[in-house]
Amino acid sequence: MPDFDFRALRRFPDVEAPNLQAWDATDELLVRWALDSGVPGAEVAVIGDEYGAIALALADAGISGIRVHQDLVTGRRALAHNAAALGLSGWTSHELGADLLAGARLVLLQLPKALAELEEIADAVARWAAPDATLVAGGRVKHMTLVQNEVLARRFGVVQPQRAERKSRLIVASEPLAVPTEPPFPVRQVHDGLTLCAFGGAFAGARLDIGTRALLDAMPGLSAHFAPQLRRNGADRVESAGGGQGSGQISGVVAGDAMQVVDLGCGTGALAAAFALSHPDAVVIATDRSAAAVRSARETMAANGIDGRVQVTLDDAGSELPDASADLVLLNPPFHLGASVHEGAGQRLIQAAARLLKPGGEVWTVFNSHLDHRRALGRDVGATEQVARTPKFTVTRSVRRG
Fold this sequence. Notes:
Layout: H1 25-37, E1 44-47, H2 53-60, E2 66-69, H3 73-86, E3 91-93, H4 98-101, E4 106-110, H5 115-128, E5 134-140, H6 146-153, E6 156-161, E7 168-176, E8 187-191, E9 194-198, H7 210-217, H8 219-239, E10 260-264, H9 270-278, E11 283-288, H10 291-303, E12 310-314, E13 326-331, E14 336-337, E15 340-341, H11 344-356, E16 357-368, H12 373-380, E17 384-389, E18 393-399
Parallel strand pairs: 1-2, 1-4, 2-3, 4-5, 10-11, 10-13, 11-12, 13-16
Antiparallel strand pairs: 5-7, 6-7, 8-9, 14-15, 16-18, 17-18
């Protein structure tokens, strides 16, 4: 195996910390398998290459033409940064689908946390890759379960776990089976009249997670708080119908002086959809760094008949939205980074909310009560008060200081 220096890789622009690194032993095992296989790069697809370790190690070994799918936009940007730093190229990026997998004889996969995501990926490989395709999936032994083998066995005739090395293990799945006519995702569930849609990689699937539920339960109070502004919005939109772009826009949406709302880290889009359904005169942006979440949120908006009124974007912490452009940010931040419990992702979104809000604008946040987010909100946004509390979650209102 070529002497590729994995230690040169960075996670940037994702959270970086001493206990977080941009590769693991699984990446190395997958790279070694690909090099030993002799499969040409044009017939290799890579899924779940978090920060580009697999693609860059193969490129460094002279393998070109591979296709790569990364769910997180932070991972896509990290791959680009690492490639530029190392002077490497030779792959193309794709969404999960036929373009990624058509003709692929070897698919390398970093096992996802969610079984639903693994089910979607296994179906996609069996559905679109070459008839003799082999899927080599790897993960850290402590995160692997026998159920993952069962999920793979639904789409492959042969599933063979390999011997563990350096606390990582590969599973080799071959002989793809026939697939149903329609893909298994997205799935849909209705919650009190709100339809949620989810692809396999979306957090909580089509369920309504209890944190989101806590913030939704607080929305009547939020709506009452913003009622005067929302009433003005309705009048403004009537007066400006057919007019040009106003100064109160987010990302070029024609809105006059309409209330500007951002669902930051939107997941399947529950908060954005609920707000848009209740307040048709508001301009709502839903954004997430996960491609699976964005696809899910777009399906959610369509299922609720509001896809023409809610803009859904793939972005890292709202980086492509203008500063001081939002009247309201809705925030249900994550508390995991991959398999690690870490507050960094949530704190990045709190800092992003502070940047996006107009002076006097507000962020309504729900978070696990044991986390230190209230202090972070007070520091980065402004005065913060508790709005509601459940046995596990706290909902707060923070006002952006001028």
